[in-house]
Amino acid sequence: xxxxxVLRICQGFLTLFLVSVLTFFLINLAPGGPSAxxxxxxxEQQREALTKQLGLDKPVVMRYAEWLGGVVQGDLGRSLDxxxxxxxxxxxxxxxxxxxxxxxLIFTLIIGIPLGVLAAVKRGSWLDRAITFMSTVGMAxxxxxxxxxxxxxxxxxxxxxxPSGMVTAGNVFAWGDLFKHMIMPMLTLSILMLPNIVRFTRxxxxxxxxxxxxxxARAKGLKSFRVFFKHALRNxxxxxxxxxxxxxxxxxxxxxxxxxxxxxxxxGRLAVQAATNRDYTVVMGxxxxxxxxxxxxxxVTDLLYSVLDPRIRYE
Length: 315
What we know:
Residues 94-305 form the ABC transmembrane type-1 domain. It is a multi-pass membrane protein. The chain is an all-alpha fold. Helix content is 75%, strand content 0%. The protein has two domains: 2-72, no CATH class; 91-308, Orthogonal Bundle (MetI-like fold). It has twelve helices and no strands. Helix 10 (237-262) packs antiparallel against helix 12.
């Protein structure tokens, strides 16, 4: 097991290195430059001086080597636009994205797993077809369109929920106010994630509920709820855990659009702002943060397999 973990960590570092190389060179070689330099109100001499001050006059390879050397020492550099440390910007935005993603994942699992179990138990019925149809529709809806639609309905038409932001401006922080701001972005992401959970849960349950031990449990007179949600679901968890491990990176990717639609001050919104302003160091910081989360999620998912099924061993 320890050898497996070490190997996966080494693979993770190699993956991060390759991602950093690809991202750094692509964004630096793209036309244009940081918004701080592209200010047309500045003179040519001022722009040249700022370019030299930020180190952008050096070759791309040299700049990458300097950036990588700083990362190894725990320094992600400074924003080219605001001159704030990238680590500070990430520490301010990362908890907001984690809060939204965690709430979305929990809500999605609470709704999606029971629906998947119900569809499997009632497979072939009108209920199964209705759940499958709703899942298909959910996969086809663009997140930006769904987010705008929710704003029009709940914020503009009925004034039930705030249209954007994380808290009401000028008010003292309150969890109730935060929850109201989080409902629409959470619903938008959940509707996009639900089809994956429902379909994988249904598929895994269909494979399990026809096995001999389930028929034996039902023949002994156990209640259906206990049979399906304790015995069958427990043995169907591995595919469900696998899709959860894939959903977490999708959540982070989907939050880029959703956070901008709802003005949620998270990493997704920071990434879009940095890409728009060609803030190279912030883009790299966000990329490394997301890449690290994806790698850690994959390692934890693999380790959970052996916990859920003792027959699985990593030698």
